[in-house]
Structure formats: C-alpha cells, structure tokens
Amino acid sequence: MTTSINGLKVAHFAAFGPGRSGQYATVRDLIFAERKFGIDAQFIDCAVCPKCLKNEGCDGKKDGNIKTQTMDWATNADMFIRHSAIPIELEGMGKPIILCLHGRPENSYLLEKYGQIPVYSFIREVAHDERYKTIVTFWKEHLFYFKHLIPEKPVAYVPSMVNLEQYSPVGPVRNYSSRAGNPNIMIADMWREDTTPFNILFAAVKFIEKYCKTGRIHLYGVSSNKRDPIHIIINQLAKSGFLGDVCTLMPNMSEQYRAADFLITPHVIATRVVREALACGLPFISGTGNKYTSFSGDPRDVEGFADVINNAWCIIKDNEEIKLSVRSILI
C-alpha cells in the first residue's frame, strides 16, 4: 500500500448526481482539493444503474474533470471514504474507511424516526466496527452532537468547502426576462424534514406586500412531485404575482446567484447554498445565529423576518462593494 500522501489512492463512495444534491457537490469539491495535494482521489458511483443493474461507476460518467471510476479501481485504493453506501464485498476488504456525515443531526434523527433511513442505528454499528477509523463532519457546530453519539471513534472537523473558481461574482448571469423583480429574492434550500423554507417564503411575501411591491421571489430546489402540497402554495403565490423563477434543481447555479439581489434561508450553518452564495458575492439573510451574515432573524416570525429583509435591502441595494466583502468571508 502507498504510505505517502503524494500518490495516495482514495476512493470516494457517493451517488453521482451533478446539480442534484449538496452532498454530491461537496464530494466533488473535496476530490478537487485532494488532487491539488497529489492525492489520486476518485469518485465511485454507489448508485445502481436501472438499465444494467450494476454500479453506475462502470459507465464512466463525467462532470467536468470528474469521471466515475469502476469498482475494480476501488479494490486497489489505499483508503475508502464513505459518503453514501459501500458495496458489501468492498467494505469487507479490510481497507481503512472514513465515514463522512453530511446530514444535520436533527434531520438524520427524523429520517430514522419516520422510517426512511436508519442513520442513527448505522452510526452505532460503525462505533464498534474496526474497519471505520474516523468520523468526519463538515460543520464545526455538529462536532458536539457526534462526539456524544459516537464516543468510541475520533470525530474530525473538515471545513465545508466550495470551488471558488466555479462560484465567483464574475461570469454569466441569469436573465429573468419578464420574471425579474426589484429586488430579486432567491430561495434555494431543499425542503428537508427538520428545516424548510416554508416560513421565510411567506416572510418574503410579507416584505413585498409591506415594503416593496416590485419584488419577486425566485424558488429553486422545489420538489418535482406534483402531489407535494408546495405546488398548491406556488400556484396561489404565482397567481398573485409574487413569484419569478420556480425550478427544481438547475445546472449552473452560479448564474442564478449572480442574478439575485439577495438570498434568504432559515439555516444557521454554512449549508451548501450559503457557501455557493457567499462565493458568488451574494448577500444572504438567515435564521438567528448564522455567523456568516449580519442579517438574521427568527424564520418562524414571518412579520419580524420581513422587517429584517427590509432592513437588509436598505443596506444592500445600490451597494456595489458588498459582493467583494461578502466573498471575503470565505477566503
């Protein structure tokens, strides 16, 4: 096995899905970062192809400089990094495994509580599995939780990252055309079990009604399931003229960040959306306690959050220097 960092072969197991999840984007950027240090980091697609019923890594799927590798390549790796599932036959090879926990602790708890994914049961199995050497979280705020949930294993914090070349204030800009507003308000969070943009969406509506009737809300990450009740809300708000773009997941999200005037999010950590927005110089308004912005409020207080949006907009509008100052938070 390779013993030096330079040339170390590392297999990252995750679901290949450009533009479909924050986890994929984080894994992609982690691979890029490792390669800069001379590590031979590769993406192993752990999803199953519906056509050949085999691992999709055999197809050599591409996303820029990322190309999925085969399971055969993984068998010769020095180390496995588990983001999603690892095939049982590879997990049993005796390779050292690092488990990356991408989910928020409360969301992971709710996934198991409601019978979806048994995250916590799996974590406790890993606690006594010698193949797993270290647990990694990408958020310092989560260290406390996991150190208590998995005291048997070392838990490391790796700062969540974003590709500053791909996400920057300079580049193509989304043309809203007839859907443009003033301001253009962006919401791009996924609707998760523990945190949804439900209340901040209505806070943005309140802001437009109360302070700025020319504003428009642009929604990204909306469920494609037409039975999801979010579509009832969207249809009504669209009829009233509050909405601009309404999309599921989109490629080239950097173009959307450059077009918006600001982002609103209920989150209090540097989620993928927050990191991408900051990298593009997009100011954001968050839930109380987010240390990456000076604009925050209780997202459950629709009236109060609308006031926070207005206070932020009064500072942000016509401020050309704010994009550079926002991006500097990441650098």
TrEMBL record:
SUPFAM superfamilies: UDP-Glycosyltransferase/glycogen phosphorylase. This is Glycosyl transferase family 1 domain-containing protein. It comes from marine sediment metagenome.
